[in-house]
Design goal:
mainly alpha; globular; EF_Hand_1_Ca_BS; about 65% helix; EF-hand-dom_pair; about 180 residues; EF_hand_dom
Length: about 180
């Protein structure tokens, strides 16, 4: 992959975290993502699932800040993201997955509804859309996550795809093959 392609993909990944578009990733971006997911699935912030999602968002933020906020200003610039989060974690995608696990576990519980064991492709697409993916790309990625074609996606499949998306040069969308 050439440098321009890598920069484009990194910019897209950064933008998916920068929920408010202010040029930085900060605690509020993670809280906004949690609030948007709860609203999408009609889940209240005060219920167990809502509280778990907010706690997961805070844990994810703390993990991200711990590896990428070099200057300690409680926000991650695009440059810090590229040098910290992407380059450091590219060699160890499981480390990134572990940082994201509390948030993804709670988001999975919200999207899985009462069943709690698997997320439908439709629900996974909704999560991806709420987190910033275009509708068509979100549905495409959700379909790719459903490797066995049964319409359901496991938490481990989501975690693995999420880590690969943010820590490797490809794919362009979580769950999709390299472009």
């Amino acid at each position: 992959m050439d440098s321009a392609e890598y920069e484009r993909k990194t910019a897209a990944r950064f933008a998916s975290f920068d929920q408010d578009g202010n040029g930085y990733i900060d605690r509020e971006d993670f809280s906004a993502a949690a609030a948007a997911l709860l609203a999408e699935f009609g889940t209240t912030a005060r219920c167990d699932k809502g509280q778990a999602l907010y706690m997961g968002a805070e844990a994810f933020w703390q993990g991200m800040a711990g590896i990428a906020d070099v200057d300690g200003d409680q926000r991650v610039s695009r440059e810090e993201f590229v040098t910290g989060a992407v380059k450091r974690l590219r060699d160890n995608p499981r480390r990134f997955a572990e940082i994201a696990r509390p948030f993804l576990h709670a988001a999975f519980a919200v999207a899985a509804g009462d069943d709690g064991t698997r997320v439908t492709r439709e629900a996974a697409g909704r999560v991806l859309r709420v987190l910033g993916a275009a509708e068509d790309r979100a549905q495409e990625a959700a379909a790719a996550l459903d490797a066995d074609g049964d319409g359901l996606i496991s938490e481990e499949e989501i975690l693995t795809a999420f880590a690969a998306y943010y820590t490797t040069p490809g794919p362009d969308t979580p769950g999709t093959p390299d472009a």
